[in-house]
Automatic annotation (TrEMBL):
Protein name as it appears in the record: Glutamine--fructose-6-phosphate aminotransferase [isomerizing]
Gene: glmS
GO biological process: carbohydrate metabolic process; fructose 6-phosphate metabolic process; protein N-linked glycosylation; UDP-N-acetylglucosamine metabolic process
Gene Ontology molecular function: any one: carbohydrate derivative binding
Superkingdom assignment: Archaea
Length: 364
């Protein structure tokens, strides 16, 4: 049942701290600075030189994040929309193709994974469903352990995918278990950040003002979500969740790209939801993009870890705690899930079963 929540989606948003703990449970040796992924022992013994991700929808946004994590650890990685994968020229050389699929049954993703296997490439399924087609057909499977998700909109499975991908990248990038390479503090810092994450997500859920913010911007003509770096997949995911359950027009952009055309649509009637976190050059540039839309009178809703410069331009602030750069996107995403939920709820939408959508898409 919905355990007292009005919708499964809200229940599942609130289950995220528990889901993330499940995903991490028994898999992290923080002292030693390594992850234990028994099911992937073979892969970690003989890590790939490069990886390609294939996925759809929300799982594709997780894949964009995952590919960036691999590149940050020095492993070449790209993410593909699964239905486009077969149209791409295959690269040569040792690589692993990773299908990110909550259900493990998405036809486009299964077909991209089959394409990879036909080309003789090793495959890994990152999935929530034990014994799913993706898990059975791939050479390896990594389970995200999010528990069942009933709402059509993917929420806790997205967060669990991001955490599982962090475990995967630390396993693969830190190489064979023989442990000849010294563990860096960087690894320990990231593993500690993962441990702290469920509590931080809980804090966001407990303290969020997303319901009030949602009520302020119900009849806008469109919604633009922007973010840069690790917050770019968050912007895409924020917009997808928003349009999926509110039926309002929303688009996600890399923050710097909005000015290259779409700025023509930005008016006082198009709120811009900007995800701006951290205190580096990346965040500073996004603040510049926020100024551009503010100058066109767009209401600005900032998701930020307390950056005063962006708060100055923002009409509304959705605050998140300061966190590591790899876990921050999950905190920002929790705020965006709540914004989408509350706008959809105010508009009386069919939140758990949006029109035209099914939980798993089994046709190409
Ligand atoms: C959006 C959503 C979809 C799925 C996509 C892939 O909320 O749920 O975009 O993410 O259809 O599904 P899986 O992960 O089952 O392959």
């Amino acid at each position: 049942g919905k355990s007292g929540y009005d919708h499964y989606m809200l229940k599942e948003i609130n289950e995220q701290p528990h889901a993330l703990r499940q995903c991490l449970s028994g898999r992290v040796d923080e002292l030693d600075g390594r992850v234990e992924l028994e099911e992937l022992d073979d892969l970690i013994e003989d890590p790939p030189e490069a990886v390609q991700f294939v996925a759809c929808g929300t799982s594709y946004h997780a894949a964009l994040y995952g590919a960036r994590r691999f590149r940050d650890r020095g492993i070449p990685a790209q993410a593909f929309v699964a239905s486009e994968y077969a149209t791409e020229v295959p690269p040569t050389g040792d690589r692993l193709v990773i299908g990110v699929t909550q259900s493990g049954e998405t036809a486009d993703t299964l077909s991209a994974l089959r394409e990879a296997r036909n080309r003789g490439v090793e495959t890994l399924a990152v999935t929530n469903v034990v014994g799913s087609t993706a898990a059975r057909e791939c050479d390896h499977a990594l389970y995200i352990r999010a528990g069942p998700e009933i709402g059509v909109a993917a929420t806790k499975t997205f967060s669990s995918q991001l955490v599982a991908l962090n475990l995967l990248v630390e396993g693969v990038a830190n190489g064979p278990r023989s442990g000849v390479r010294p563990r860096s503090d960087g690894v320990r810092g990231r593993l500690a950040a993962l441990r702290e994450l469920p509590g931080q997500v809980q804090q966001v859920l407990d303290e969020s003002n997303a319901a009030e913010v949602a009520r302020t911007y119900l009849d806008s003509s469109g919604y633009f979500f922007i973010g840069r770096g690790y917050n770019y997949p968050v912007a895409l995911e924020g917009a997808l969740k928003f349009k999926e359950i509110t039926y309002e027009h929303a688009e996600g952009f890399p923050a710097g790209e909005l000015k290259h055309g779409t700025l023509a649509l930005v008016t006082a009637d198009t709120p811009v939801i900007a995800v701006v976190t951290g205190d580096d050059e990346i965040a500073r540039k996004t603040v510049g993009n926020v100024k551009e839309v503010e100058a066109r009178d767009a209401p600005v809703i900032a998701v930020t870890d307390g950056r005063s410069d962006v708060e100055r331009y923002a009409d509304e602030v959705l605050e998140i705690p300061k966190a590591h750069s790899v876990t921050m996107p999950l905190l920002a995403n929790a705020q965006l899930q709540l914004v989408a939920y509350h706008v959809a709820n105010e508009l009386g939408r069919s939140i758990d079963k949006p029109r035209n959508l099914a939980k798993s898409v089994t046709v190409e």
